[in-house]
Amino acid sequence: MPIRDLRRAANYQKYNGLPAKNAAIEYTEERRMARELTSTRVTWLASRLAASTGEDMEAAVVGDIEERLARVAPQPTAARDDEIDALFDRLARMPVRDARPPDDIVGYGPDGLPQ
What we know:
The protein is mainly α. Helix content is 55%, strand content 10%. A two-stranded antiparallel ribbon has the order 1-2.
């Protein structure tokens, strides 16, 4: 569905007092995604956060999400990269128990079908 149709549908619902069919109305424009959350709890929590930090709601929510993502999904570190490299080195040194090509082990013929 084109962006303008999503916006048009959202505006129609808003101005005619109709309930939104989804909890959020999304559209993408110029690589920016806007989301209107209709949850009263989310709005209340965001406004409390904004009031306590002195920021607007968007800045407060974005900052909080970035902080939480940094804790939950930390960025790969050099030590982690070294661990992964060590694992691949260890796997490369493992003995080969069957020297046949993979297709022969699985049992596929030259035509790609099982033999």
